[in-house]
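// run 5 | inverse folding | seed 20
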């Protein structure tokens, strides 16, 4: 037995608007979407470079809701990019809200966090230094002492 792939699956209110936002903010391209006769998007797949993110409307009748309905979220999507500052600016220009501005991190990455208009948080980061797990733990220990 083995895992072949792993996909993030986002639930949103107004999936059509979300698909447009992710194209503007992150350069995602739509592979396809399945739309119900009433217009509700039952399933869509977006390509972020070579990686697929799946998306659908909320289905409250099935207990499937997004962060806007929950009033917050319990996860985030991490996009490893070439320039987190530029990607954060692009996302904000497309309608995202800055949660945490770009900053160098102890684990060797420069990162920022934005919240999309649908409530999902996106961590945007690029490597600034190769850090071993041991060094990362040492730095983390120092950070926790502060």
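// decoded
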């Amino acid at each position: 037995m083995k895992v072949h792939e792993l996909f993030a699956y986002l639930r949103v209110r107004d999936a059509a608007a979300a698909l447009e936002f992710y194209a503007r903010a992150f350069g995602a391209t739509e592979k396809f979407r399945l739309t119900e006769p009433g217009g509700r998007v039952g399933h869509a797949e977006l390509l972020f470079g070579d990686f697929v993110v799946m998306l659908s409307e909320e289905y409250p009748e099935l207990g499937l809701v997004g962060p806007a309905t929950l009033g917050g979220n319990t996860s985030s999507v991490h996009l490893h990019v070439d320039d987190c500052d530029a990607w954060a600016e692009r996302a904000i220009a497309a309608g995202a809200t800055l949660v945490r501005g770009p900053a160098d991190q102890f684990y060797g990455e420069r990162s920022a966090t934005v919240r999309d208009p649908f409530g999902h948080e996106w961590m945007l980061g690029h490597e600034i230094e190769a850090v071993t797990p041991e060094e990362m733990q040492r730095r983390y220990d120092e950070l926790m002492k502060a």
